Amino acid sequence: MSERVLVEQLQGLADGPVVVSGWVETVRDQKKVQFVILRDETGAVQLVNPATRELGEDAGPEASTALALTETISGLTTGTFLTVRGELKHDERVKLGGVEIKIGSLVVESSALPETPIAADSGLDKRMDWRFLDLRQRRNNLIFRVQTTLEHAMRTYWIERDYIEIHTPKLMSSPAESRAELFQLEYFGDQTAYLAQSPQHFKQMAQAAGFGKVFEIADAFRADPSFTSRHATEFTSIDAEISWVDSHEDVAAMQEELLAFALAAVKEKHGAEIEELFGVEVTVPATPFPRIPLAEAREIVRDRGYEIPRADGDLDPEGERQVSAYVKETFDHDFVFVTDYHAGIRPFYHMRDAETGLTKSYDLLYRGTEITTGAQREHRIEVLEAQAVEKGLDLEGLEHYLDFFRYGAPPHGGFGMGLARLLMLLLGESSIREVTYLFRGPTRLAP
Questions:
Q1: Distance (Å, rounded) from C-alpha 11 to C-alpha 92?
Q2: CA 184, 386, 349, 212 torsion: positive or negative?
Q3: Residues 6+ positions from 446 with CB-CB distance below 8 Å
Q4: I need a labelling partner for 19 at 20 to 30 A (CA). Which of 75, 106, 153, 279 fits?
Q5: Which residues contact 102 (CB under 8 A, 6 or more apart)?
Q6: Which residues are CB-neighbours of 22 under 8 A, at least 6 positions away?
Q7: Minimal CA–CA distance to 77: which of 113, 108, 102, 101?
Q8: pLDDT single digits (tens) 361-416
Q9: 156/414 Cα distance (integer angstroms)
Q10: What DSSP designation does 48 have?
Q11: Residues spanned by CATH 3.30.930.10 within the chain?
Q12: 129-435 has CATH 3.30.930.10 classification
């Protein structure tokens, strides 16, 4: 293992002996020479072998070994994993990285079946059936390198500002928000458990515990039978909660700083490769992001010739696209906070403005799609209970949550953001299935 060199390191090495390992991407088996494109997790390199097709009468052991190597290469299938020892040579005529390796010896670590079940033109569902093969593409590999950089940058932003990372339970004794979207399961025979829709209640608990500022990046579950390009039944949620806010504006200010910081890290590390493989320029957003109250957003949409059909007053997907298009045209910005939502379309724990009755909350739209809901939370127990009753919720079922506020809690707020949606929009992809390692939806539980 210590001898192995990654493909991305080859250009920096001097000509000479080298060991590489990876899988076969293509084989060109010509009469006098053989070429193998070998790919590893960092890139691809051309391997070359002068073909020995037959042995003369006076052939010695070296000729026999050369013939065996030629025959082995002729039989290689796409996807076969190899370890190759050979001679590295720099040659600017080689289009793939300006280097090639003359094969000295080759070990087949694991052979692949000759018929590959997916092709470049396979449909999305077929590719999801064979996701591990689909992910071997350089483009798909990049998605998860970008995801890694995004998450690392966000953690860096928070940790440098003294946030505490928490890991909240995903098994809950009572529903956190909408019971209709809960996965319910038997828990040790006579108990019922629910898979958490979000860490909402527990990150608020951290505020009552005096943690001040917290974040979590973890799985969340929604029993939502949607088949849209932006919904999943299991997804990665990016959450933060902070104490001593004056309003939702403090939360929004933190989130826009976070996103600008994270996208700058992505641009620096992957910007050129994203532009090459996805045709998308990574733009680091200027702060502050534009802000538009919901009532004004609805007027903007109406003026652009679209009537939102939803009776509850919220934006629908087309409304979101129209607002984002207006913001791009007017402010040349990819993000916009839509603020001041009616209490009827917000959860009971969102704080309401005493004068307007509207919630101190926002949705964040990115390139036409909502990626975040954020808000100041209601921390006064009597108001919280009244708003829960108004929403028709059973206070008895919320006892553990309400207890957090019976012994004192600071003014606080936070947000939840979908990682896959952020990635999808950043890379210009059409579905979160493309940017999710293994997608889970109403009809997909495997692989």
A1: 11
A2: negative
A3: none
A4: 75
A5: 47, 48, 49, 86, 87, 89
A6: 7, 38, 39, 40, 41, 44, 81, 82
A7: 113
A8: 999 999 999 999 999 999 999 999 999 999 999 998 899 999 999 999 999 999 99
A9: 18
A10: E
A11: 129-435
A12: yes
DSSP assignment letter at 309? -
Paired residues of 90 in beta bridges: 99
Residue type, 40: D
Q: Which helix (H) or strand (E) holds 293?
A: strand 291-293
Residues of the chain with CATH 2.40.50.140: 7-110
Tens digits of residue pLDDT in 133-143: 999 999 999 99
Query: Which candidate, 332, 331, 339, 330, places its Cα nearest to that of 365?
Result: 339
Dihedral over Cα of 18, 140, 97, 72: its sign:
positive
In this structure, what token pair is assigned to residue 386? 């009244």
Note the pLDDT tens digit of each residue in 269-315. 999 999 999 999 999 999 999 999 999 999 999 999 999 998 888 99
Dihedral sign, CA of 230, 203, 415, 166?
negative
- Judge: domain 7-110, CATH 3.30.1950.10: no
